[in-house]
Amino acid sequence: MYPDFGPAGRRGTGVCRNRAVMAARLAILGVGGAHVDRIGHLSGPAHDGASNPGTMAEWVGGCMANTLRVARAVGGGRVGLISARGGDTGGRLVSQALSQAGVEDFSAVFLDRATPSYTAIMDADGEVMAALADMDLYETGLARHLRRAEPRALIAQAGMLLVDANLPSGAIGALCDATDAPIVALAVSPAKAPRIAPHAARFALAFMNRREMNALISAPLGEPVTPATLARLSALGFRRAVISDGGGPVTVLDGDAAWRQPVGEAANPVDVTGAGDALAGATLAHWPGMALPSAVRVGVAAAAATIGVTGPFRADIAACGLKGRADALPAREPIALDTDTSSETP
Length: 346
Description:
This protein is 33% helix and 22% strand. The protein is of the alpha/beta class and 346 residues long. The chain starts with 10 loop residues before the first helix and ends in a 12-residue tail after the last strand.
């Protein structure tokens, strides 16, 4: 087993290609998941413990890959990815998808390993019933790859660094130490979100959903977002956070301020996969150049456009009239923060 830069089987030329472009600064560099998504859709009511008729589709996805593809499509700046994949068909699909989206690929390819994958079963309404993440390569190969000189140079030069919780917490901490650029965290899932908690104060912004927020503050996953839960999140060190909640409002924490951004009515929702990633990618394509409230509105518009198609990434997202959609959203609703968390369970 050995790491390889670029497409599988091109060890030497891949290294040279990446070194040749390293001198140019990336606007956004992401380190994290880029893998194969297998999404099953039930065609009727679910029957537990039994075979259910439906369809299965395969896409290139991953929290980081989806976010970066949207950021590239909406913002147009140079965007790069450091990830890990196998030398298999899934790995080639990932490589092709990144290239088609204009995301520069600095990933390690382990020729004798399988590309990580995510398999989800969606009910007839498009909501996730169950999912399985087979992503051990991020735990081992990617963390090891980040110790090499080439990726570390890219990390040090990037204008903004994105990290996701597919990485072990120690690797996330090492990434934070390797850059002076703003760092943005993606929580990924309730199971993995606690990995970013020790580094909360290092993040300029974090994206999560309500269940991931509750995992971070050690609350029941079904708890709503309230002033008290936001105060507990802030107490962990998170200065800014964007918290999605399915079809409910997006909650934003910004220092001493907080608000809910209503999402409006989504026209003909088809598939919620990738909606949170679209929210993050479109927001980051505009922030910090644009004020966070306005950038989040564009992110909400991108999420609404994404759930109108099947799959985790909408290739024509830049042509979906996001500014008009954002301008049409309801006004944000301020939240009075609860600064007293003494009665909350730690």
